[in-house]
Amino acid sequence: MSRRPCRGSAARLGIVLVHGRPYAPESKGKLERWHRTCRDQFLSKVEERPIQSLDDLNARLWAWLEQVYHRSPHEGLDGQTSLARYQQDLPKIRSLGPQMAKLDALFLHRVRRLVRKDGTVSYQAGHLEVPFELAGKNVRLLVDPHAETVVGVENDAGESIGQATPLDALANRDRRRHKPDPVVAVPVRSPNAGPNLVERVHAQDYGGQED
Q1: Can you give the residue ranges of the Integrase catalytic domain (predicted)?
Q2: Per residue in 137-193, pLDDT tens?
Q3: Distances (CA, A) of 179 to 134, 135, 138, 182, 183
Q4: Other beta carbons less than 10 A from residue 113's beta carbon
Q5: What is the distance between the alpha carbons of residues 19 and 44, in angstroms, rounded to a whole number?
Q6: Does 1.10.10 match the CATH number of domain 100-173?
Q7: pLDDT per residue as tens digits for the range 92-144
Q8: What is residue 189's DSSP assignment?
Q9: Distance between CA atoms of 146 and 109, rounded to whole angstroms?
Q10: How far apart are alpha carbons 102 and 87 in whole angstroms?
């Protein structure tokens, strides 16, 4: 995941990200120590022969994390296990409250696009249709980062404004557009003509007397 989607997801959760300075490993000592432990205790002991896929490797990683790493005493925690240290601070963990129901949506990626005149947007060398009334406007596509598919469209305020569907070029050609109402031309009134349109309407609605 790129840094920008991480920032967006964190902001929606009310989390402030603090990054270490580039080329300063001492400012990321805990992370560097984790990399060393992972190499020494996990990667060095993984047997390649039974691993058939990335899922196999991930399954072994999670098994090691949950059954070994999290349950082993750590010198940096004064001999506590990382699981026990985590459980110690459970009362301090902030609840997401109503946001929990839309947790998956908070982690969707947002991709900004300008809607074309035909009501389409481009995404990954293809095109998608969005509600035609959005033509000419900037929108944000909601992208599932795992499936790499667009699941919706929202405005800058984070409000849902429709769906995005794969472009059907043939159907789009005959797509019904919402054209503005035609302007009705008002004829120029001759000096010798009777009461103009305003006067006639006034007479009908307010009882005015026509000349």
Answers
A1: 14-81
A2: 999 999 998 888 899 999 988 888 998 888 876 665 655 555 545 555 555 555 555
A3: 13, 12, 20, 8, 12
A4: 20
A5: 29
A6: no
A7: 887 777 767 677 888 888 999 999 988 899 998 889 999 889 999 999 999 99
A8: P
A9: 10
A10: 25
- Cβ neighbours of residue 51 under 8 Å, at least 6 residues apart? 57, 60
Q: What is the pLDDT of residue 199?
A: 64
Model pTM? Answer: 0.53
CA distance 88 to 12: 27
The residue among 125, 119, 122 whose CA lies nearest residue 141 is 122
CA distances from 47 to 44, 51, 56 (A): 9, 7, 11
Strands (E) in 36-125, as ranges, are 109-114, 120-123
Domain range annotation of the chain: 3-97, 100-173
